[in-house]
Amino acid sequence: MKILFVCLGNICRSPTAEVVFREIAAREAPDLAFEIDSAGTAGYHVGAPPDTRTRQAALRRGYDMSALRARVVEPQDFRRFDLILAMDLQNLDALQQRAPAAARDRIRLFLEFGPDAGATEVPDPYYGGANGFEEVLDLVEAAARGLLQHLRAELRRSTLSQPQLPGP
Ligand code: 4NP
User: Mean pLDDT, 10 residues at a time, over the chain (168 residues)?
Assistant: First the structure.
């Protein structure tokens, strides 16, 4: 299963989702194989490491983001990934506009998978205070767990609905 997380600059929210989901999936679903990546809809920070405030907040919870570098969403991403998850409505809209029609149903809001029906967007922390980075982590950790549960349920459903081989 290939999952791409997308925000605006690919230096705060989507790289956070990338490392958090990778860590939670490795710990809680070691039997499932994931390819996980992140990208931005804007190219302001291409090649840059994640924002220092983002990296420090993540490290305090045990997530190492030092190997990540920002990149922009590319046309082949719409073919490559099974699920493309936007951090907010602005980026969802940007993705929908760029995607070929065949890819549109694979583009969703990440927080659809979160437990809190009240929050639909991961707020952009870039111009805000330190609390914004903690809020991003809280929302992302909860939605990553929700996403993993959703994918497990889907997998179970598709395995159950596969035709059984005839017995001897
Ligand atoms: P991100 O945050 O989309 O979560 O990576 C931002 C990073 C940079 C900018 C805006 C948002 N910027 O305007 O440079």
Answer: 98 98 97 97 98 98 98 98 98 98 97 87 95 97 97 90 63
Centre of ligand 1 from the C-alpha of residue 132, in Å: 12
- Assigned superfamily of 2-161: Response regulator (3.40.50.2300)
d(Cα 121, Cα 127) in Å, to the nearest integer? 16
Q: How far apart are CA 132 and CA 54, in angstroms?
A: 9
Per-residue pLDDT tens over the stretch 130-156: 899 999 999 999 999 999 999 999 999
Q: Using the mean position of ligand 1's atoms as its centre, give its distance from the Cα of residue 39 in Å.
A: 11
* Cβ proximity of 127 and 118 under 8 Å: no
Is-catalytic flag, 124? yes
